[in-house]
Amino acid sequence: MRIDLHTHSTASDGTDTPAGLVRNAAAAGLDVVALTDHDTVAGHAEAIAALPGLDRPLTLVTGAELSCRVEGVGLHMLAYLFDPDEPELARERELVRDDRVPRARAMVVKLQELGVPIDWARVAVIAGDGSVGRPHIAEALVELGVVPDVSAAFTPDWLANGGRAYVEKHELDPFKAIRLVKAAGGVTIFAHPLAVKRGQVVPEATIADLAAYGLDGIEVDHMDHDEPARARLRGLAADLGLLPTGSSDYHGSRKTCRLGDFTTDPEIYGEITRRATGAFPVPGTGGTSR
Question: ∠ at Cα 88 (83, 89), nearest 5°?
Fold first, then answer.
């Protein structure tokens, strides 16, 4: 089985529609894909509806990537198979989403003050119906020739955490995020915990505290982790009893990573699904509507 547990669609900051994403996941030879848009479940229904029309079977794991902050450091929490209608978690996701537009506008203003001829209207067009975020601003910077690619915008000079044009937003305390996801029957995985090029990362002691509080796992195999970081995280997962996962963090054409570039071991995936009670993976038979 080939299992990719971290992808994004146009419901947040990816370039594939939710239906397009599952079609591309099937074409890439994946058996399981998780749709984990930032702080939203808006793409789930479309992705589920597309499963029967695929050329081959594909199982969809519903989820979201929650924006969190602890001790001044931002982090992302992947939440899988939670009840999307659980009111407290839904309310927190809405608070984060509501803060995205004013935050993005403030970053555009900062960039303008730095001499960048960026226009909010263009950022809004790039974001479309998605949940606006830094990748949309980064794409505008690429169009203007300020940076060569989206990844290059995520540096201290521009949009990285604490960077010159960075603006904070409403974010969940990760301990609260774990509690809310658990209460909604879901499973939590700390996304790309050693992605140092994105900015400051949380110390291992904090990861240990999160594990003691109920964190289920950490994303080990990721494009932003080099081999030493992956080895370090694999050892940390073993020491703390955390599930190690691997994922592409696919954003369509917005990033260079491809679906299935990194995958999760089937046994780890099985344990994630065993722990979840809020929702269940959606199997697609493939080709049944053709």
Answer: 50
